[in-house]
Design a protein that fits this description.
Elements (H helix, E strand, L loop, with lengths): L3 H15 L3 E7 L5 E3 L6 E2 L2 E5 L2 E5 L3 E6 L4 E4 L8 E7 L3 E6 L5 E6 L20 H11 L5 H6 L9 H10 L13 H20 L40 E5 L2 E5 L19 H22 L5
Parallel strand pairs: 2-10
Antiparallel strand pairs: 1-3, 1-8, 4-5, 5-6, 6-10, 7-9, 8-9, 11-12
Helix pairs in contact: 1-5, 2-5, 4-5
This protein binds a DNA duplex (12 and 12 nucleotides) through helix 4.
Length: 302
DNA sequence: CCGAACCTGTGT
DNA sequence: ACACAGGTTCGG
């Protein structure tokens, strides 16, 4: 379910609820969900941060890292008792970890640095870290993987998943099968811009709700209606009207436009305007115009 | 690098 | 009955 923008949204909704609260106990209703690297000790939540797709509750010397994987949710009020896999007990409240597929994990650790935490230590940089401006192109040069695989690999950049990988490739006019090392410096720059733009927009819209995602208040995200590739198999491209195609890359369904997402250097690009939100609005506007014209003139307008 | 595995549910 | 679902990790 959650990629970087959804996890960021959850973290934002958790902060006002949990900061300065003491985590007094963890109740595991599904034993595999909760992992203890050290014996549990109660601690006061000093801060809550996101790193990649991880949620981290931080004490002075204690950490609780939470990964929602596919169907995990952190909620004040559970929506379905059957799927509650763990309960975090605080002094004045509790937080329910709901997870239909049981893939999610909660890890308690103490006496360790943030960046050395299990799971965290293998993550690549956050998309907005300045070092990426320099290192991103070099990283691409070193990879034989397709760009879709590259973007999904958390060691390269932290936080991108299947939805946003497709949205990013679409926005950057890049074919998801493009071999990473064949990407030029200028296209790498455009790609990094698309990564930041797409993720920023999704955070502003509080994430994408397809089937499962809700924040800690139970609210859905608003980014669904702005998706341009993911979930649009067979529908026409908002830029060039060609039906979108799906393939499997990295064992994940990948949606892309076979006409305007080109392998860089191979073919010329269809158009150069970069603001896809603008194009989306233009597209819906034109659709409405066509509908009105049809109503006036019938199927064959002059 | 690829497929399978981990789970449970939904939709065709 | 079968394919598929927003993620990660393992073995070959």
């Amino acid at each position: 379910m959650p990629e970087l923008p959804e996890v960021e949204t959850v973290v934002q909704t958790l902060r006002p609820k949990l900061i300065d609260q003491q985590l007094t106990a963890i109740q595991a209703l599904n034993s595999a969900t909760v992992v203890y690297k050290n014996p549990f000790e109660p601690f006061i939540i000093k801060n809550i941060v996101r790193r990649g797709k991880y949620i981290i509750l931080m004490g002075d010397d204690h950490f609780l890292t939470i990964h929602l994987r596919m169907t995990g949710r952190l909620l004040e009020k559970a929506t379905n008792k059957k799927f509650i896999r763990a309960i975090l007990a605080f002094t004045n409240s509790s937080l329910h970890f709901e997870d239909m597929r049981k893939f999610g994990r909660i890890v308690f650790a103490t006496g360790i640095e943030l960046e050395a935490l299990p799971g965290i230590r293998n993550l690549g940089p956050e998309p907005w870290q300045e070092q990426l401006d320099k290192s991103f192109y070099q990283q691409l040069q070193r990879s034989n993987a397709t760009i879709k695989s590259f973007l999904l690999n958390q060691k390269n950049i932290a936080g991108i998943g299947n939805i946003y990988a497709d949205e990013i490739c679409f926005h950057a006019y890049i074919n998801p099968l493009t071999v990473s090392k064949s990407i030029t410096a200028s296209i790498a720059k455009r790609l990094l811009n698309s990564i930041r733009y797409i993720l920023n927009k999704a955070i502003t819209l509080r994430g994408t709700t397809f089937a499962h995602f809700i924040d800690a208040d139970g609210k859905k995200g608003n980014n669904f209606e702005y998706l341009q590739a993911y979930g649009r198999k067979g529908k026409s491209c908002f830029r060039c009207n060609t039906p979108l195609t799906t393939i499997k890359i990295h064992n994940r369904t990948t949606v892309y436009c076979p006409a305007c997402q080109k392998i860089p250097g191979n073919k010329k690009e269809v158009c150069t305007a970069a603001d896809s939100l603008y194009i989306l609005h233009l597209h819906t506007f034109l659709k409405r115009c066509r509908k009105i014209l049809r109503r006036i003139f019938g199927d064959h307008p002059p």
